[in-house]
Amino acid sequence: MNVEAVTEYASYALLVVVVLVSVWLLVGVVHYVRADRGTRTSMRQALRVRWGWVRLARMAGLTVTDKTPSLLAQITAHKDGPTPAPRVLTPRIKVAPDQFGVIVRARTLPQVGLEEYQKSARFLADAWRCTRVSVLPDGPGKVVIRGVRSDPLTTPTTHRPTGRPPTDLTRWELGVDEYAAQVCVSLANVPGVTVAGVPGAGKTSGVNKFVCDFAPSAAVQIATADGKVSRASEGDYADLVKRMFAFCGDDLDEANALFKRLVELRKRRSSTIRDVLGAKNMWHVGPSPEWPLTVLIIDEAHTFFREYKGSDAETKRLAALTAENARLVEDLVKKGRSVGILVILISQKTTGDAIPTFIRDVCPIGLTFAQKTVEAAVAALGDDIRNWPDASPVTLQDPAYVGVAVMAMQGRPGYTRIRTPYVSDADAARVAEDTSHLTADPDLCLDALLRSTGRTTAAPRAPLTK
Ligand SMILES: Nc1ncnc2c1ncn2[C@@H]1O[C@H](COP(=O)(O)OP(=O)(O)OP(=O)(O)O)[C@@H](O)[C@H]1O
């Protein structure tokens, strides 16, 4: 090959490299311009993290000295020449920016493992100008370092519902934790959830999100008992009621009838599930429009369970009704899991006088927004919250924490604080309106399912009231 040909190839190669680098730069600039303000700041921060890493890692003690020369140095070393200098190994990193800060995936080295990274977290936070840095394992030989510039808990977020059915009906996305990581809970095999919090702390917005997320699926049907109102046209559920197969206000007789009806449904489902679904547990096959996940929301739950004390006939009657209500809801929470019934109990406080402990304590998920007293925090989250004062909902009384909830995470020690996104009443009303045609009484769904599989149905029943 002559010199001219080599020069020609080299100039082609150079051209290709220049084109590739230009495309890469262009893509970067487009990403930068299209990103929101927070992400742009994080993109600049990510560049600084990458460029300064080798130096910073040395200063933070995250490097290791390898005295063995590299293979190349061994081959090229002269017998009588100087011994090659030891090499300083720096862990390789990959940096990704997002709205809140950077996610750094790093390799471990001998003597530089998870523990060493965790010890350096404070140092890295200062160097990267982050409020918080967490280090978690990311598979063998890898760690993930999360740095957040601003506190995700005090940064309000908004959720605009898409109106599309969720891809996974078992995933309830609650919001983000203090490291801006998504927090989801699994609804599979969960029969009860308690939600507590002082007025104005974000409970209604949380319910709006739940309804908006699940309403677009015909495999979810919702009933509500709201102790705050007397009629469906009043209060927080006035618009959402379009997507509910049953609704009642604070009338104890009506609530009693609704709970009885759902217990009946629970019994019918329990006795037919094996024949119809071919499984003992609905979650083994998942909810479907024929066998929908049936959600009962009980807002201001204490209205329906409070103890009436007095000797006159009417008080005695009401006392009997609330006691029966408690027994009925207990039945749903204790036996509804496998047949696809979920009860969400909402109350300012979840102390025993508001929600009977025999119901509250069998709800596997308990979350609370701000609370005034440690007793209320303990009632909502269990006694262990006393050992985690930093996560206590009592510290969330500042207006900056409206919309922040605390929850015990399944399979993790301690508690997680979650910034839930705000979902406006108008968006919730729009989704309820657009999806109202999907509303169906699960009792009638069961009748239809039994008919279609050639099984006899029980005597037709009156539809649930609204
Ligand atoms: N997740 C959130 N992020 C930011 N702001 C929120 C959030 N949730 C609620 N807010 C603000 O707080 C106000 C009250 O919220 P919401 O009605 O959800 O409280 P609540 O706990 O249901 O109160 P109540 O018990 O009186 O019904 C809302 O109008 C909104 O301005």
Describe this structure in words.
InterPro entries: FtsK_dom (IPR002543), P-loop_NTPase (IPR027417). This is DNA segregation ATPase FtsK/SpoIIIE, S-DNA-T family. The chain crosses the membrane at residues 12-33. Residues 180-378 form the FtsK domain. With 466 residues, the protein is of the alpha/beta class. It has 2 domains: 31-65 and 86-150, 2-Layer Sandwich (Threonyl-tRNA Synthetase, Chain A, domain 2), CATH 3.30.980; 154-452, P-loop containing nucleotide triphosphate hydrolases (Rossmann fold). 38% of the residues lie in helices and 18% in strands. The protein has 14 helices and 16 strands. The protein has helices at 3-34, 37-59, 71-76, 114-119, 121-127, 203-214, 252-277, 282-285, 302-305, 313-335, 357-360, 374-381, 425-434, 442-452; strands at residues 64-66, 87-89, 93-97, 101-107, 132-137, 142-148, 171-176, 182-186, 192-196, 220-226, 244-248, 293-299, 341-346, 365-368, 404-408, 415-419. The chain has an 8-stranded mixed β-sheet with strand order 11-10-12-13-9-14-15-16, sandwiched between helices. The protein is elongated. Adenosine-5'-triphosphate binds next to helix 6. Adenosine-5'-triphosphate is lined by residues 156, 197, 199-205, 402-403, 420-422.
